[in-house]
Each structure stands twice: as structure tokens, then as C-alpha cells.
Amino acid sequence: MADEPSASHGPPTAGTEARLRAALQELEASERRFRSLVQNVSDLIIVVDRAGRMQYASPSLQRLLGWEPSEQDRGLNGERIHPDDLRRLRSAFVHAKPPGPNMPVTTARTLHKDGNWRWLEYSITDLREDPSVRGYVVVARDVTERKDAEEQLVHQALHDALTGLPNRALFLDRLGLALSRLERRPGLAAVFFLDLDYFKVVNDSLGHSAGDEVLVAVAARLQGSLRDGDTAARLGGDEFAVLCDDLVDEGEALQIAERLGAAVASQPVPLAGRELVVTVSIGVAFATRPDQRPEALLRDADAAMYRAKERGRARYELFDSAMRARAVARLETEATLRSALEDGRLSLSYQPEVALRDGRLIGAEALLRWRPGTPAAGGRDLTPPSEFIAVAEETGLIVPIGEWVLREACAHLAHWREVSGDRAPDRVSINLSGRQLARSDLVDVVERALDASGLPPNALCMEVTESVLMDDIDLAVGALKALKALGVEIAIDDFGTGYSSLAHLRRFPVDMLKIDHSFVAGLGRNPEDAAIVRAVVALAQTLDLTVVAEGVERPEQLEELRALGCERAQGNLFSSPLPEHEFAQLLVSG
Ligand code: C2E
Ligand code: MG
Ligand code: MG
After folding, report:
1. Does the pTM of the predicted model rise above 0.90?
2. Is residue 45 part of a domain?
């Protein structure tokens, strides 16, 4: 055994030759298999040598990029990669690794023979050390459809579906970019906030699809009146925004505002057989410093737009710092007021309403009080309602606050009745804001407060100011009728200040008129005020309504009111509004 030659040392025997041939055949077969695999896979397989020259490209080159494999030298090189993607692809070569799990992939736009860009996904393997390759193996596949779908998703996320304009997110993004450009180069950019005038009327009277048509037309007009590089966006509803960069001065921004307004309004919008002139109110805010925040700028422009609405619509206004101060104060008040509601720092004071005939206390008006500081500070630092109710109305906070007032006032009257019996007022009055009146759940809310307290409906009087009633007469008539049907009493507050005509007055199901204190103030001094009060008393008698004079401070006012036939009064002469516990004491002591 020891001297028998081994297969590796001695001359080949017939057996080893056969084995070698078999091995070669297998190699060839495997090579063929491999070649056929490479030739037939749909992915493009490329071998690139160390110098970056293409050594081999599989036939998929034609399917993917239109080139014959014989044209491989022209099939793929730096010039055929999109300039924006070239760096990324080069770096993928630099960082390529030998084969292993989780090979990284890179996408790059690659030029098709037909001149279009295709998105290819490249996976690059470093086989420079492999003697059979001595280069990189690149596997590429076409992912254009996936990329297009991705891009479409991104587009949808950043654009308004109706008008195709950028949406708020994209607008804020562009504004952020414009602001950061100011860091590198001082300049001026302007934000325009646009809100269509009376769009709600269009929607309500002509329908939503007409509203949509108007929005699309406005979007096109805005877009059409801008330079390249400016952005028009739809923020939502009937609100649009425009961003203009690189302005020479503020004057240029004003010209743009004029142009935007004119672009919208100069031609009527054709709508199924009719034509509609649409106008827009515009607020302008300027970006001059890179530390300005996009959201804040948009809010500034919004505040200026609000001013344009106030001043008659179809115009533009510039934002100024006084507006900002007001807007900030409004936000602060809203935040502290909200927490006051949650933390129980709101309270009600009650002002007696007395019968002039016998001085009997017949009612009590609940008046909201807010102690912004600590409850321990006592009754001195109360903020008057005039300072915060307007904010609560604007922000809608008046709705939960109003509900609280209603429940609290009903609970108080029920309590007084329990403790003081006959001495308790017949009813409690609360003030209703326009926002509350417009809510469809108003009657439910009132009913629940009555149920919770056990009071009958006629123990509650709801006061609505004349100006709120005049704001939307049909809405007010509907809401008051529903309340009336419930059985609560209804008073028109601040009567005489809201220009209601007799015709309107007859439509409202009211029980009582409260003469505004401004007319009462002049009684005993100013004959014109006396004439107004006399007229209101006469009107009330005609319509069978009770009259209450508000803000009675001096005895001579009282005398004149009696002489004029007024039946009831309220005012500091009798009592100023009292915190609940003081009012309860008044009832007990008489
Ligand atoms: P209002 O309903 O007309 O209330 C009468 C206002 O006249 C009260 O002002 C009251 O304190 C004040 N007043 C009473 N007697 C006299 C007087 O002899 N002389 C003068 N100069 N004023 C007198 P207040 O409490 O500041 O409330 C102002 C307004 O705020 C109320 O006017 C009402 O419109 C609104 N308000 C008050 N509480 C609420 C509430 O809970 N909800 C709503 N929505 N509004 C409320
Ligand atoms: Mg009132
Ligand atoms: Mg009043």
C-alpha cells in the first residue's frame, strides 16, 4: 500500500483522466447554467472593471434601457445617469462590499435609448478580489412604476385634491425655505392670506359643486397671475395663500396684492348658466428676518385679512405690530379663560330686577365674572365681562362657558327656592350669545339644565341682544321659537341699539324688552332719551311685552321711568350685581 502512487503525484491514469473530464464537463455545464441564468434574468447584470469600464452587460440591457448588448459600451456610463443621482451612485461604488447578506441598494435615474429617464435600482457587489471577476458586479432593475407611485403619494400628501395647488403643509415648507434664504442673503418676501368674500352664501345658495367650481376658478386665476417661483396654495375651505420671494420693496408686494385681487374679481365666474363675481379679502405680512416662524407669518397675514374683512371686504390690508399685539393678547386670554373654566375660576354674580310698582324683587340676571388670579385674591380683582366675552365669542369658548352659566344659574335659583321660599326671585335670566343661538343642540342643553335643577321652564329667561337677533334674523326666529316652545321666557337685551324694525320684532316670539342703559342714562336730563323710552314703552304695550329699564343709577331716573309707564328696572340704584353668597344673603335678610 505504501508504494502505490497517489492520484496527485503519479502520471494520470485512465481513472483520473475520466474524473478530470467529468469535472470539466460539470464546470462547462455550470458555466452554461450560469450564463443562461444571467442571460435570462429580467434584472440587468453588469460587470464593471476596476477602472470603471463596463466589461459585460446581460441582454436585459435592451429591455431595460433599449440598447443591444453589443452597444453595451454606450449603454451605461456617467453621462447616462441623471446629474442629481450621479453622486449617490458613485458613492455606492465607493462603499460597495463583497457579497454578503443585506446588500445595500441605490436608485438612480438612468437614460433610456429613447431619451426618457427610467428609475433603476442598483445593487453593487465588490468582487475586485475575486480572480474570476476582478471588478464590480452590478445588478439593476427597473423601479420606475414604484417610484412614480411613491411620487404620486408624496404629491397627494402635499397638494389640495380639488385645485391641485400646494396645501398648507407644502406652503409652510416653502415659506420656511424662503425664510432660510434670508439668512444667506437679506431680502424681502411677502405672505398673502386670501379669503373669498361671502363664499358661504355661494355654497349655501348654489350648492357645493358650484362652490367647488368657484374655488377651482380662483385657484387658476391666482396661479395665472404669479411669476415662476412664487407659490399659490389652498389652505382649506375658501382660504388661499400666496408666497412671493425676492421682492424689491414693500411697494411691490402691494402691487401684487392689487393684482391678485383683480385677477380674482375682474371676470365673473361662469356657473351653470349664470355668472358670479367673486371678490377676495387679502392680508399681507412681510418676511424680513430668518428667525421669523412660518406659522406666525401666516397668522399675521390672517390677522391682516381679518382687518380687510372688517373694513368692507374686497380689499387688502397690511399686517402691523398692533395687530400682532391684539392677536397675542387674544390667544393669551383664550388660554387663561379656558383654564379658568376648567379650574372653577368663573363665577356668577346676580343683579336684582325689581317691580317699580312695589319694589318687589322679581328676577335676577346672572352676570359672568372671571377671576384670572388665584381664588384667594378675593372679590376685588375681577375682570369685567366686556374684556373677555368678546374673546370667548370669537374663539367659540362661549359655548361651553354658556352651558356652564346655564347649569350654574338654574342650580342657584333652585337652591334659593329651597332656602328662601317665596323670597326667591320668580326667575333667573341668563345672557345668550350669538354662537349659542346658532347651535342645533341649544334646546337640548337648556332642557338638561332645567331637568338637572328641577326648575320649571318659566323660571328661566334667556336674554339675547338686539344686534345678535339682527345678525341672522331667520336663524334667530327659528332658535327663539324652539326655546319658546320649551316654555322659557325670552327677552331682547340692549334694546334700542340694534336697529330692529317693528316688522322684525313681530316675528320674534319675545316676552320682554330690556331698554339699553344708554337711553336710561339721560333720563331726567335729556328729553330725547325720555322720548325714546316713552316710544319703547308704547311699543311694548302694543305688542303686549314687559319693559325693563337697565342701568338705573339715580332716583330721578326712577321717577321718570315711573312717569313713562315702565314697569320694571334693574341697576345700581337697587343693587349692583352681587356674588352668589351675597345675593343669597340679601334674599334671607330681605
Ligand atoms: P347686559 O346683559 O346688558 O348686562 C347688564 C350690564 O350692565 C352688566 O354689565 C351690569 O353689571 C351693568 N350694570 C348693572 N347696573 C348698572 C348701573 O346702574 N350702571 C351701569 N353703568 N351699569 C350697570 P356686565 O356685568 O359688565 O356685563 C356686560 C355684558 O356682558 C352684559 O350686558 C352681557 O351682554 C354680557 N354678559 C355678562 N354675562 C354673560 C354671560 O354669562 N354670557 C354672555 N353671553 N354674555 C354675558
Ligand atoms: Mg343681559
Ligand atoms: Mg343689557
Report:
1. no
2. yes
